[in-house]
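User: two proteins, same treatment. go.

Assistant:
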Amino acid sequence: MESNVHFLTDYSLLWDSLRKSLDLTEDLPEKRPDIPGWRKISGRTKEAKNHYHLVRRSSHRGEKNREKKLKAAVREYVKTANRISKKLHELKNIHVTDIRETMPVESIGYFTKMADKHTDLMKRRILKREDIPHEEKIFSVFEPCTEWISRGKANRTVESGIKICIATDHHGFILKHQVMQKQQDAGVLIPLTEALLQRYKIRSLSIDKGFRSRDNYNTLKEKADILVMPKKGKSTQKEYEREHTEEFITLRKCHSAAESDINALEHHGAGRCHDRGIKGFQRYVALSVPAYNLHRMGNCLLEQYRPALKKAA
């Protein structure tokens, strides 16, 4: 499920941080005239925006002398960002006279911290030519829970959001779901399956090969009569014979119905989250699942009564 964020680059995230922190200081000249130096906020915002657009244009691959122009634009962008950040850090020690000012001061501190972080990342990546470790990256200053998901598909290779794991029955109803925040496929399989086994009597389990690991396979083969979990890579002779039995092939073909379930779930609200925060994300998913199940139930009832309706017609 995608988060409601724009395409992510460090210079655009730096602009988001500077823009938002300066927007929050817009009322300072009127509310706190005792704090000097904040009457030219619009000028600072315009200066930062101009440098952002200059870096964005210089980063295009077809630009002549691209590397030289990009580094020069980044240096000026970094100077402007450091100057604005230094001014914003002065607000840390202001005396709050009204409880309504607490939240803006805290928000200004957060966005200033994000601006400092992305200024450093941009200097390291472009000026020093360093490879930034994945765990140091933040993919949205407004939705910090957003993750970079590599799909590996031709139409959309990457997405910004959080992965969701769903378990469906043979009728297509979603029995359980889980928002996989900072979790991998193999790590959520056992807890999810055990939760299902506590509520339902399950004869066969059909699981995507991306969830397979040695521990997962050895644990689950004792919990279900039939375990359909294809092996990654080359199979041994024994595994090849097991995966080519008639029952295994039939159940594995049924598993492809999960792809249509995923597509239907996206059309019932789980395509993109327009709420904020991880709690809003989880709420969006939790509401889209019963919406999908209700639609599925309606389709089942229509299939049940369609012969009688045709006969009556």
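Protein 2:
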Amino acid sequence: MDKRFQGFFDASDPAAQLTREIDCRRLPRHVALIMDGNGRWARQRKLKRQEGHRRGGDAAREISECALRLGISHLTLFAFSSENWKRPVSEVNFLMRLLYEYFSKSSEKISDLDIRLRVIGERDKLPAKLRQKIAELERDTAKKKTMQLNLALNYGSRQEILTAVRGLLAAGASPGELDESKFREFLYTRDCPDPDLVIRTSGEMRLSNFLLFQSAYSELYFTPTLWPDFRSAEFLSAILHYQRRERRFGSI
């Protein structure tokens, strides 16, 4: 087992062998995850959907620490989309409480692990108490450097692009000076490299309005595993799959 993972999982864990196979010189700088399948996971087990979301939160914590130990500098988790407001009010309210609970319980560990937390998305619709907790965590972790963890909350990529265009217009940008670099300055992810790898769980094969501009040349990895069951071994398998690909960015 790679010494960075000692104490994180047992030597008998399948993930332990995978750590020895990964080429640490060819890690993706930025991995983005569409965490899908909480509801189906719960339904298959005849549990309430809320339990699926709780177990999904456990998976998010494990994958975040696994990425950190591996040496990935940026991780983005799609936690709540701008379309998720269409869900039943009771479920939305539960998710907001769960997010607040996650931030409250994880704040000290996030800081200790040298993780910088950023929330991307439209915050205005989030509960005031949750917005305050987010602001506290972002402030308290602003100088952390080992990994940046982006949580996409009330996020939609089309809205992000429109917001960037409005920002450019408000800043008085002229058509002649507008280029890709200038446009990126107004995106939520302006301080991040584009994702090298986008992973989606649950068997669905679409991006669902997630990082559409940023993922133009991302490698895509789809797995039928439902998010609560997506743990370190499968995450490391996705990294190995990424390392077997040849990235040409349009060249030969």
